[in-house]
Predict the structure.
Amino acid sequence: MSEDKNPANFEEQIKKLEHLVAQLETGNLSLEDSIKAYEEGVKIAQNCQMTLKNAEQKVEILTKQGEELVKQDFNSEDI
Amino acid sequence: MFLYFLFAYNESVNANTKKVLSVSELNRLVRNVIETNFPSVWIEGEISNFSCPSSGHWYLTLKDERSQIRCAMFKNANHKTNFQPKDGQLVLINCNPGIYEARGEFQLVINTMEEAGFGILQRKFDELKMKLSNEGLFDVSYKQKIPKNPSIVGVITSPTGAAIKDILSVMKRRFPLTKVLIYPTAVQGDGAAQQIQQCIINANQQRTCDILILSRGGGSIEDLWPFNNELVAREVFKSEIPIISAVGHEIDFTITDFVSDFRAPTPSAAAEIVTNDQNKLHCFFSDTQVQLGRLIKRYINTATQLITIKRKMLSDPRRVLRDNQQSLDQLETRLKKGQKIILREKKYLLNFYADKIKGNAPTQSIQLKKANIDTLIDKIFKAVDLKLMECQKNLSNLTKVIDAVSPLNVLDRGYAILQNKNREVITSTNMVSASEQIDARLKDGSVSMQVIKTINSPESKRSN
């Protein structure tokens, strides 16, 4: 599930979902394949929704420590 | 300069013990003192009582919070001013202080006038915009595409400003999965431009972000000034990471707005541009699930219909069995019946042919043929005997003829046949040569001879 938190991956999941729907829409699948496509589609949709629901915003800030730039967590409540 | 004034006054006092100046004299004196001692000066102030009589000269009062001063700007100077002064406007003037002798008023004669504060900056802004535009930095062909759903968004702004707050809250609401990396910088005042420039350089070196938002909240033109800096503008142009410029309010335009890949009217708008709408996505996922359900139902319905049809096509096997049993019985009956008929028919045929064979027994005809054969044999024998006799007769006749013509008969009468070694018959003198061995064949044997010489008869010579 951790890789799902990547928005690019999220986009891929959406594409996959759209592909599954398109495949089902052609009506050319066997009953077995159509059920597989349906199950996979529902799983992806639910996973994505869960990911969104549980997502927490991750904000970092670059700070200078000596000569190095270091990433630190940034709490937007502090503003 | 005060000393100078005293000196001038004292000079005139010394001439007469009690020197009295006329008003105009004093005014001229003071005017000379002021005008010769003050170089032209720059003054900033607010315009009031602006008037522009038909003469074309401008008259106005310049003031600040505590005091004011009369000013005149003559036609030859004011026609170079590129704006129409208004009361309340803040202006920067270059002028020479003096005295209007007629009224004894201290006044300024304005040489040039420009809009103060905003005005100066506006002009610098316009000049830089023109310069960069001419260099092609704003060309659409250089604009990079804004990634649709970036993983990491870099924000170059003040970590304590309103802009970052707006951006984070919009991004959190719309799509919390997108990570944010803040490049903290001052966004106004001295050194801000250099810091902003350095942030863009750092972001491009690190290559962590898919897109950069260059942002600050609203403010005066002076506040926004770092975003009109030429070095910042050139760094934005150079950036290989796409940059969205979101500076100030919707009505504020900065140079970074023109040179960036995309201008967002506000920081919030920039945050919206780089994120998907979570609510829309939720709707999308819900709708898709409904659609998936509808589609799979369609598949199942089709399959169910197909099964119903196939089931109808499959009848009860017992019925098939019964049907088959019945037809088997029928066939058996027909077979038995058929067998009897065939048997009867065959029997009849058999009898029929048997009778026919009995009636036509060939004994008699055999005897008849036998008699015929005997007669024929007799005939053959007789014919053969006759033919034999005929042949014998012919043979004896032929023998007689042969005997008559045989040379051997001539030998009986004393003739001889000459033959050479090769047993060829010698018929001419030309066929032999002297001393050649030849044979003469006689009736009862042969004589071996040698040729002495050949003599041709005269007849043969003639014939030759």
Summary: The beta strands of chain A are 59-65, 68-73. Chain A has one domain: 10-73. Chain A has a mean pLDDT of 83.
